[in-house]
Specification:
With 639 residues, the chain is mainly α. It has helices at 2-8, 12-25, 30-39, 43-52, 58-70, 74-86, 96-106, 109-121, 128-140, 144-153, 159-171, 175-183, 191-204, 207-219, 228-241, 244-256, 263-275, 279-288, 294-306, 310-322, 329-342, 345-357, 364-376, 380-389, 395-407, 411-423, 430-443, 446-460, 466-478, 482-490, 498-511, 514-525, 532-544, 548-561, 591-608, 613-616, 620-630; strands at residues 569-574, 577-582. The chain has a two-stranded antiparallel ribbon with strand order 1-2. A hairpin with a 2-residue loop joins strand 1 and strand 2. The chain starts with a helix and ends in a 9-residue tail after the last helix.
């Protein structure tokens, strides 16, 4: 009767009552009780029952060792095994597979070798399941030679034996050895084996061989079909290479062959489409997924970030919180980056508070995101505070602090932080020098800029890139050293882009150097896709010098090549919500109130005599100005 009650019990309350009756009546049902407690995930209670039994069946020990291992307590599995030995209990062949799995989880090869000795001493050295577990343990503990010796000594091998040794070689980058074993298998190669090999070539970046092996799999005599794990490996490779063509083929293959969409495969599809630039398809897959886990949300948020859709990333984060999904480090770093891009200080502070309230460790990655967010949202003091409080600093964190100070015009402080970084023993990288040179540029530190630019190659072995040349050219140009800046551009080992020429052209306008502006103007207008901003700048330089024919020539070039100015947009954060506005925007829910308020402000400024139409035109008026510039009314006196 009590055994029947025990088997049908569904709660710990019922178990307590049955346990009491077992003790009162002295019934020998402890082993059944332990099994039931394990089924109900009450492992500590099961351990308590085990400790009270004077004589144990090996079944009870094995069940509890298995439960500890599977539920993430591998150390307790090992402790329980030690107690089993001290109690002179004899292990069975069923004791060791999950005990060795605990060693694999902990990467404890020393304990694994001791258990191997016990296995041999107790006569289980030829047990197939135990041998397979030993191979798996040695592979996961970096001991491939021991795993291979174990595999070689086996008299009988099954699919698991072959899968374990091949997966071990793949795991540690020895794909050719794995392939050699794979091709020589005397038994049917199952989907696990094929997937391991496909994954191996994916890890090596050999995409061609990976796809070749996949095609071979589909037509092989093994008659094996790919599963979700196989497709995840292939989709991950497509994501890494941004190969949308193959990625779409794999997506269709999954649909046609009705491969079950588990949450891992759905996440891989979202990630692939996002990294290949098709964020709309990624969103449709995300919205249609019946089950989503945290990596699924992170993949979609990351996809929005990679495509520059910052508002959508923040909206999805808010939806995620509304559905009580707890974010992790990856989520918060993405959200902080979105806040930095939008200037959403309030939401950024909310994320910072979330870290503290939920006991999340402020590691160097989160600290870097916070420093960047605070700096870009205008709170450089808060950025400095986060930076100082972070004990372990990497190059990325130093770079974020240097760049933040540079953008705020604190050039000397940025140089001081750079000096402190070098004293700490860290080597600067390309991004570091972008920050250092920007700091010199924003603060007019010409000599310091020259010294730091030359030290890139001389002291640190870093070749300047376009971004570094842009900074130093802008610095020299603003300071009036136009010829030096021009000679530097002429001597560049990499072709200068339009941004560098534009920086030099801007300096020509500041210092009224028309001769050099002519040379640069010729370069800019000869480009395949001239920058509209620099064309306008060149036209203004000619206009200020009264060279109206050149003004008309530049405007004609813009008209003929149909160079368009991208629509401007702005953001404002109110109560943690980011509102976006574009030219002539009427889509906002409160657009009538916004334009009404604007009219009130304009009328007030007019009444005060402070309104100048040319300086306060917005929305539609901006477009009219641009069209007037591109297509002006002909004035013969100006030509």
């Amino acid at each position: 009767m009590f055994l029947s009650l025990l088997r049908t019990a569904t709660s710990l309350t019922q178990i307590h009552q049955i346990h009491a009756q077992i003790l009162i009546r002295g019934l020998p049902l402890q082993s059944h009780l332990i099994s039931k407690l394990i089924d109900l995930h009450s492992i500590d209670y099961a351990r308590f029952v085990l400790d009270q039994i004077p004589s144990h069946a090996d079944f009870s020990w094995n069940s509890l060792i298995r439960a500890y291992t599977l539920q993430g307590s591998p150390k307790n599995s090992l402790f329980l095994y030690l107690k089993m030995l001290r109690n002179s209990e004899k292990p069975s062949n069923f004791t060791y597979p999950f005990l060795l799995k605990a060693c694999s989880t902990l990467c404890s090869v020393f304990e694994g070798e001791q258990i191997h000795t016990h296995v041999l001493r107790l006569g289980f050295g030829s047990d197939l399941f135990v041998c397979n577990s030993l191979i798996d343990m040695y592979c996961k503990c970096f001991c491939l030679e021991s795993a291979r010796n174990m595999w070689d000594d086996m008299e009988v091998r099954d699919e698991v034996s072959w899968n374990s040794i091949i997966s071990g070689y793949v795991q540690w980058g020895q794909v050719e050895k794995a392939r050699e074993l794979f091709e020589g298998m005397p038994i049917r190669r199952n989907v696990v084996c094929w997937t391991a090999m496909i994954n191996g070539y994916g890890k090596e970046g050999d995409f061609v061989e990976m796809l070749s092996l996949f095609r071979h799999m589909l037509v092989s005599a093994d008659e094996v079909q790919p599963n979700a794990a196989t497709m995840v490996c292939l989709l991950s490779a497509c994501s890494a290479l941004c190969n949308s063509e193959v990625g779409r083929f794999l997506s269709v293959f999954i649909d046609v062959n009705k491969i079950p969409l588990n949450v891992i495969l759905v996440t891989a599809l979202i990630d692939m489409y996002s990294k290949c630039g098709d964020v709309e398809k990624a969103q449709r897959i995300f919205d249609g997924a019946s089950c989503k886990n945290l990596p699924s949300w992170n993949a979609m948020i990351t996809g929005y970030m990679q495509c520059g859709l910052l508002e959508q990333a923040i909206d999805l984060y808010c939806l995620m919180k509304a559905q009580l999904v707890k974010p992790n480090e990856i989520t918060l770093v993405n959200v902080l980056s979105a806040c930095a891009g939008l200037g959403a200080l309030e939401l950024g502070r909310e994320v910072h508070l979330y870290l503290g309230r939920n006991g999340l460790e402020l590691n160097v990655i989160l600290a870097t995101a916070l420093v960047d967010m605070y700096a870009k949202c205008g709170k450089i003091n808060d950025a400095c505070l986060v930076f100082v409080k972070t004990s372990q600093k990497d190059v990325a964190l130093w770079n974020a602090m240097i760049l933040g100070l540079a953008y705020h015009g604190d050039g000397r402080d940025a140089i001081a932080v750079f000096s402190q970084m070098k004293r700490s023993g860290l080597n600067p990288n390309d991004v570091t020098f972008i920050g250092v040179l920007s700091a010199c540029n924003h603060s007019g530190l010409v000599e310091e800029g020259r010294f730091q630019f030359s030290s890139m190659d001389d002291k640190h072995g870093l070749s300047p890139k376009l971004e570094h040349y842009n900074c130093i050219v802008d610095l020299l140009g603003r300071a009036g050293h136009l010829e030096e800046a021009y000679e530097l551009v002429q001597s560049m080992v990499i072709p200068p882009d339009s941004i560098i020429w534009g920086a030099l052209l801007s300096a020509c306008r500041i210092h009224r150097n028309l001769e050099l502006a002519d040379k640069i103007g010729g370069v800019i207008t000869a480009m395949q896709d001239p920058n509209i901003g620099f064309c306008i700048l060149l036209s203004n330089i000619y206009a200020s010098a009264g060279r109206w024919k050149d003004v008309a020539r530049v405007r004609r070039l813009v008209k003929e090549q149909r160079i368009k100015k991208p629509s401007g947009c702005s953001w404002v954060e109110v109560d943690g919500v980011v509102h976006r506005f574009v030219v002539e925007d009427t889509t906002h829910l409160k657009s009538q109130e916004i334009y009404g308020t604007y009219e009130i402000l304009v009328n007030h400024l007019k009444a005060e005599g402070r309104f100048e139409a040319s300086h306060l035109q917005i929305d539609g008026n901006l477009v009219m100005n641009y069209e007037a510039w591109c297509f002006p009314k002909r004035n013969e006196s100006n030509l």
